[in-house]
């Protein structure tokens, strides 16, 4: 006798099959975008040239090897790491606050990380030496992002409920204070430090190098793994904190993991690329519309799409005004600000005072 029950994948509202397909397609799209990124530049390279330089260097010209390995491959890998980290942090932030308007850049977390990075540049070189900055920067930016995240969460949460309006206004206040403190440090910086600090205010991947990749990859991978381990907990948290507790979810532990992961991802990204906004708000929202709110798929998909978008934005930033380079933060703001306004108008009921 045949059962009338529908297969789980066909149940109404179940988009797991679509989500799995999206993950595969996004992985393919990321590989294609990375390849195009390595090919694009003042000296165009063919697909065959790029593949030879990477996989068969004995068949590649020395100039092409230098372009691929010293300039474009590190920059592309850094774009993938930073884009994936920012998008993942945004998805976790939205899951933590249960609101699509949450984003590390919008609510002051990036400003806290940026201030700490600026402090490391201005003060750390004199105290620890220039050689130590490559390791001090991500640690300092992490601490700054962590303190900003904890402060914001304490301000916005009362009696177990998080106020979105308070979160947004508190984030603006935190960002303003961090910008003011950063301004004091910039005022005290010397000419060489001032040139370096310009990088932080607008965002850029122009300083990509293998030492930066090796120094930041462990931080980002650790935060991605730890954050991804609580994906199911975010699904329960979407029902409300009380309901999540009834389902056996250790809510306070989940919050701590989310806060530390977001701070580590944001701080490390800021340390190597400066302040890049809107990736963390645009990517999770697009994916939520396409594959649903299940964080088991939303979080890994955010990594892929965030990496694709930032790699694409980096290609635009270094070609649109060639031979000069447009700061990548300007490109992401031009694309992300209108999208954020659309989300804000679409969710006006969530921010009513």
Descriptive report:
With 353 residues, this protein is mainly alpha-helical. It has a single domain (75-347), classed as ABC transporter involved in vitamin B12 uptake, BtuC (Orthogonal Bundle). The protein contains 14 helices and two strands, in the order H-H-H-H-H-E-E-H-H-H-H-H-H-H-H-H. Strand 1 (157-158) and strand 2 (161-162) form a beta hairpin. Helix 8 packs antiparallel against helix 11. The longest helix is centred in the N-terminal third of the chain and has 36 residues, at 62-97.
Features:
mainly alpha; disordered N terminus; about 75% helix; about 350 residues; globular; ABC transporter involved in vitamin B12 uptake, BtuC; two-stranded antiparallel sheet; single chain
Give the SSE layout:
Blueprint: H1 16-39, H2 47-55, H3 62-97, H4 109-128, H5 133-156, E1 157-158, E2 161-162, H6 164-188, H7 191-202, H8 210-228, H9 231-237, H10 241-246, H11 251-273, H12 279-291, H13 295-317, H14 328-346
Antiparallel strand pairs: 1-2
Compact overview of the structure:
74% of the residues lie in helices and 1% in strands. It has 353 residues and is an all-alpha fold. The protein has a single domain, classed as ABC transporter involved in vitamin B12 uptake, BtuC (Orthogonal Bundle), CATH 1.10.3470.10.
Portion of residues in beta strands equals: under 5%
Query: What profile does the largest beta sheet have?
Result: 2 strands, antiparallel
Q: What is the helix fraction of residues, given as a range? A: over 70%
* Poorly predicted sequence stretches spanning 5 or more consecutive residues: 1-12
Number of beta-strand segments = 2
Instruction: Kindly report the CATH topology.
Output: ABC transporter involved in vitamin B12 uptake, BtuC
Can you tell me the CATH class? Mainly Alpha
**Domains, number:** 1
CATH superfamily placement: ABC transporter involved in vitamin B12 uptake, BtuC
Q: What form results from the Cα inertia axes?
A: globular
Mean pLDDT: 84
Regarding quaternary structure, what we see is single chain
Counted by DSSP, the helix tally is 14
The largest beta-sheet arranges its strands as 1-2
């Amino acid at each position: 006798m045949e059962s009338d029950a529908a297969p789980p994948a066909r149940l109404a509202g179940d988009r797991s099959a679509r989500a799995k397909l999206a993950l595969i397609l996004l992985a393919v799209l990321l590989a294609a975008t990375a390849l195009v990124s390595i090919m694009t530049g003042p000296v165009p390279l063919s697909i065959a040239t790029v593949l030879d330089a990477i996989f068969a260097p004995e068949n590649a010209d020395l100039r092409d090897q230098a372009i691929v390995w010293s300039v474009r491959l590190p920059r592309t890998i850094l774009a993938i790491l930073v884009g994936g980290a920012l998008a993942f942090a945004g998805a976790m932030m939205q899951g933590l606050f249960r609101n699509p308007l949450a984003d590390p850049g919008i609510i002051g977390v990036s400003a806290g990380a940026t201030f700490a990075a600026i402090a490391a540049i201005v003060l750390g070189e004199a105290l620890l030496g220039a050689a130590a900055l490559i390791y001090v920067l991500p640690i300092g930016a992490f601490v700054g992002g962590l303190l900003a995240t904890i402060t914001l969460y304490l301000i916005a949460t009362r009696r177990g409920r998080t106020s979105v309006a308070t979160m947004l206004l508190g984030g603006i206040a935190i960002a303003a204070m961090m910008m003011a403190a950063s301004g004091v440090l910039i005022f005290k910086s010397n000419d060489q430090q001032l040139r370096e600090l310009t990088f932080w205010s607008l965002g850029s991947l122009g300083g990509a190098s293998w030492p930066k990749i090796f120094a930041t990859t462990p931080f980002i991978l650790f935060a991605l793994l730890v954050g991804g381990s609580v994906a199911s907990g975010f699904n329960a948290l979407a029902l409300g904190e009380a309901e999540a507790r009834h389902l056996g979810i250790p809510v306070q532990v989940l919050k701590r993991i989310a806060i530390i992961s977001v701070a580590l991802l944001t701080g490390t990204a800021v340390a190597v690329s400066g302040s890049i906004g809107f990736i963390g708000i645009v990517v999770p929202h697009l994916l939520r519309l396409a594959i649903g709110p299940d964080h088991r798929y939303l979080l890994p998909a955010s990594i892929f799409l965030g990496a694709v978008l930032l790699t694409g934005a980096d290609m635009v930033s270094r070609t649109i005004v060639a031979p000069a380079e447009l700061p990548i933060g300007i490109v992401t703001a031009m694309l992300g600000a209108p999208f954020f306004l659309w989300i804000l108008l679409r969710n006006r009921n969530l921010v009513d005072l």
